[in-house]
Design goal:
It is an enzyme of class 3 (hydrolase). The chain has 602 residues and is of the alpha+beta class. It contains 19 helices and 28 strands. Helix 14 crosses helix 19. The two termini are 47 Å apart.
Length: 602
């Protein structure tokens, strides 16, 4: 690790803060769109600290600093961030705002970038600091950018159209629907800054953010169905502009902030969870009437239409072939002790490319051997790369971006020879039982993801075990692999998505797990589609259930059959019969022979 490098960077930031008359600065992993995955130009926290996780924040004062991460990154942050430079803090137990207030001192001026934080965060920081006679100050420009000499430029890649046959709807129809919503609510316009929402509304895709096919831009949509799309002009090829027509006005992205002033006197909707504080501040300053409302693209984007559902099924079928070929390869090469995490991830990507039309991975492959598997969101690097030891557990969580769908699958396998220890088989089977319980549950319309979460945990809980991540997240259609508003997770403190009812057409992951620190990790993940169900003799109401979309074998050597009920064994056999039906015709030779054996009934 290049600790002197990060120490020098921290010192440079402190000098810049002092020059600006600031006593501190707070910085999240974020961009001006509040994206989960951000472009290289916006990786400010990683540049400053060395931390490579996807979520976290840092607070820097003149004489101390702290980094705040959740339970997913407790171990990773200690491996990547120097303890002499930053205190390690765990959220939600530790509050960044409170830490700053407790350590900054009276009269301190703490800077924050309003283009990287939500309005609720900015207000909470202001209120917490005010109690200690300190103040939060929005900066005109980010001080990291002033000291990051070789900061990359935002991507210049051109956007491209998403085929209307795959999208299932025209952009004009989507814009008309949002315009009708605006009129029904008495709003004049809506400002949309979530990149996947913009891509969905306009039926375009981009290459500006790794693993998520979106373009850096903003969209203001009016109640007459017209829109201003703020994007670098040279990123829009003529065919894209022609397809959108005159109703979508192209304007330079760097004019967006000033253009908010044009909305003076207008009633403007903006999503407080998906738009940064600076947008609200600019609208307020312009004299617009700002209404906090959920991005009107979020829910219709989450409810996949027939064309999107069909596309997902086709993409999953191709992706399953790649995963099956990889798992077969692993059974041959893994026991030889010559495979490591990086080479395994590279091989899996090659198999996906061979299946055709892979545009990107949907996220960095989690290729985790032995103790690295205990890090739920591990990201392999040259520094952490481990060999897949014979006689160990290997976890691989991966996915692909295809024009017709986004995939996400996790398989946990035993690297032979021999069989896994009894403890490993028992805990894998408890995870499997939870996966089956969720997969097979029928539930009434109106049920939320938070209400279903415990189904997947019950067999772990009965043994005093649990996992520290959600059970399921929404998935986009050739868009973000993590998509709201739906999710399956413990409903704590109004956690976003936990209280969203599940609706027919939504796609989610089903991924319970178990992680033994320092030894191994287990996770089983398939994607599922919410759809209607019929219950014989049901007295009332509408009922829903899940259709499994992901098809690839599970490792039978990891299972302890004596812990499975007849119903669970029937699920296993039916699932693998379906895997064989979907995948086997696309394989040949040894890979096909292996698949047929892997799909034999328990």
């Amino acid at each position: 690790m290049l600790m002197p490098l990060h120490e020098n960077r921290l010192a440079a930031l402190r000098r810049e803060l002092a020059n600006r008359g600031l006593d501190g600065f707070v910085l999240p992993i974020s961009d001006e769109y509040l994206s989960e995955y951000v472009g290289a130009y916006a990786q400010r926290l990683e540049w400053l600290t060395g931390f490579g996780g996807s979520a976290g924040s840092v607070a820097v004062l003149a004489n101390k600093a702290a980094i705040f991460v959740d339970g997913r990154y407790t171990i990773q942050v200690r491996d990547q961030v120097e303890a002499k430079l930053y205190e390690y803090k765990s959220v939600p137990a530790d509050s960044l705002a409170k830490w700053v207030a407790d350590n900054a001192g009276p009269g301190a001026k703490i800077g924050y970038d309003g283009w990287l934080h939500t309005r609720s965060f900015a207000r909470a920081l202001e209120a917490t600091l005010a109690k200690k006679d300190a103040s939060a100050v929005p900066v005109e420009s980010n001080p990291i950018d002033a000291v990051w000499d070789d900061q990359p430029e935002p991507s210049p890649a051109p956007v491209f159209l998403q085929d209307e046959e795959l999208a299932g709807r025209s952009s004009a129809s989507k814009r008309a629907e949002i315009a009708e919503w605006l009129k029904s609510e008495g709003h004049d316009a809506v400002v949309i800054s979530a990149l996947d929402s913009i891509a969905w509304v306009l039926n375009v895709r981009g290459r500006d953010v790794e693993h998520t096919p979106v373009a850096l831009s903003y969209l203001t949509l009016f109640d007459d169905g017209t829109a201003d799309w703020f994007i670098a002009p040279d990123k829009v090829p003529p065919e894209v502009g022609a397809a959108l027509g005159n109703a979508v006005r192209l304007r330079p992205r760097d004019q967006f902030a000033d253009a908010l002033g044009e909305l003076a006197g207008k009633k403007v909707a903006t999503d407080p969870q998906r738009s940064v504080a600076a947008i609200f501040d600019a609208l307020d300053s312009a004299g617009a009437e700002v209404v906090a409302a959920q991005d009107p693209a979020v829910l219709p984007k989450a409810i996949k239409n027939d064309a999107e559902q069909a596309g997902h099924r086709a993409a999953q079928a191709r992706d399953g072939v790649a995963v099956a070929r990889f798992l077969h390869w692993l059974t041959v090469e893994g026991p030889r002790g010559t495979v490591d995490e990086l080479s395994a991830a590279a091989k899996l990507r090659t198999f996906r490319q061979d299946c055709g039309d892979l545009r990107d991975l949907s996220f960095d492959t989690i290729s985790a051997s032995g103790p690295n598997g205990a890090l739920a969101h591990y990201r392999v690097s040259e520094e952490t790369n481990r060999r897949l030891e014979p006689g160990s557990v290997y976890l691989v969580d991966s996915g692909g971006q295809y024009p017709d769908g986004t995939t996400d699958i996790t398989r946990t396998v035993w690297i032979g020879p021999g069989v896994p220890p009894q403890e490993v088989r028992e805990r894998f089977t408890r995870v499997l039982k939870g996966h089956i319980a969720l997969d097979t549950q029928t539930f009434p319309a109106g049920t939320t993801g938070g209400q279903l979460d415990s189904l997947a945990r019950q067999f772990l809980w009965s043994a005093g075990l649990d996992y520290a991540h959600g059970t399921g997240h929404g998935v986009g259609a050739f868009l973000a692999v993590h998509e709201g508003p739906q999710r399956i997770s413990k409903a704590k403190g109004g956690q976003a998505g936990s209280e969203q009812e599940l609706l027919a057409g939504m796609i989610l992951s089903n991924e319970p797990g178990y992680y033994k620190a320092g030894e191994y990790g287990i996770r089983i993940e398939n994607l599922v589609l919410v759809g209607p169900r019929t219950i014989a003799d049901a007295d009332e109401g509408e009922w829903l259930g899940f259709e499994t979309l992901t098809f690839a074998p599970l490792d039978r050597t990891m299972v302890e059959p004596s812990l499975l009920s007849e119903r669970e064994i029937a699920w296993w056999n039916a699932y693998h019969a379906r895997v064989q039906e979907v995948i086997a015709p696309q394989l040949e030779g040894e890979a096909r022979d292996w698949l047929l054996e892997a799909c034999q009934p328990l």
